[in-house]
Specification:
This protein is an alpha/beta fold. Helices cover 42% and strands 15% of the residues.
Length: 249
């Protein structure tokens, strides 16, 4: 369950997640602003990839509960023929998956019940809708901090990109260990105590390592609100997450 899920399910009255959300916000009051900034980051990166780069296929892993500006909505607003595959292993997301399948008629969307830790299985299933011989934009938005170091997070990302052709891309946002360190540690400790899915926060250097072998799109790995903000409000958002986009040469 992503931080976004904790926030939105908290508002939807799921009692366990409401408690986790309340504790997270108590530890880190900017969490709500960070969640919103993360959605804005997702939208900006999808617009860039669908618009400037011209990618027409997206693989959104760990998508979370559908909210505003879902990947297919943003991409298909630019290119209606875009195909999008969502993957998540959260039963709550599965219950909301119908909202993710409302594609424009020119394009297509699909939802996979799959775990980010199984990249081969995800790619095999995604090939039912996506042409993996053509560029694919892999979206890992606020999900990799749920993959612990001993589960091979860098190997997972490498495996995903290795199977895709040049021109593909990788987008990551990640909860930091080196911004507001005391508050973030407190939030992580509380969530790890309350939720079965534990978190591993990472530094800018560690997040940048996920892009090894890729061409980082300027401005590189930066606080998400600083990645090509569309306006002053986005640029000034209170948020603590690292984010970046890389292109496969």
């Amino acid at each position: 369950m992503t931080c976004t899920d904790i926030y939105y399910s908290r508002n939807d009255n799921f009692s366990a997640d409401r408690q986790a959300g309340d504790e997270a916000i108590e530890a880190y009051p900017q969490m709500v602003s960070s969640v919103r900034a993360n959605r804005a980051f997702l939208a900006r990166t999808v617009r860039y990839l669908a618009g400037e780069v011209g990618i027409r296929q997206f693989l959104d892993i760990g998508t979370g509960i559908p909210t505003a500006n879902n990947t297919h909505e943003v991409a298909q607003a630019i290119a209606p023929e875009t195909r999008v595959v969502y993957a998540d292993n959260d039963p709550m997301v599965l219950a909301h998956a119908r909202a993710l399948l409302r594609s424009r008629p020119e394009g297509a969307t699909a939802y996979l019940d799959a775990d980010v830790r199984e990249p081969a299985e995800i790619l095999q299933a995604a090939a039912g809708l996506l042409d993996l011989n053509r560029p694919v934009a892999v979206m890992l938005i606020a999900i990799l901090h749920f993959v612990s170091d001993d589960e091979g997070p860098y190997e997972i990302v490498s495996r995903l990109l290795a199977e895709l052709p040049p021109g593909s891309s990788l987008t990551i946002s990640h909860v930091p260990s080196d911004m507001h360190a005391s508050a973030m540690k407190d939030m992580g400790d509380r969530l790890n105590r309350l939720l079965a899915q534990r978190s591993t926060y990472r530094s800018k250097e560690q997040v940048t390592k996920f892009f090894d072998g890729l061409q980082l799109v300027p401005p590189g790995v930066v606080p998400i609100q600083e990645w090509r903000p569309a306006n002053a409000a986005e640029a000034g958002a209170a948020a603590s997450m690292w984010g970046g986009v890389g292109l496969k040469p």
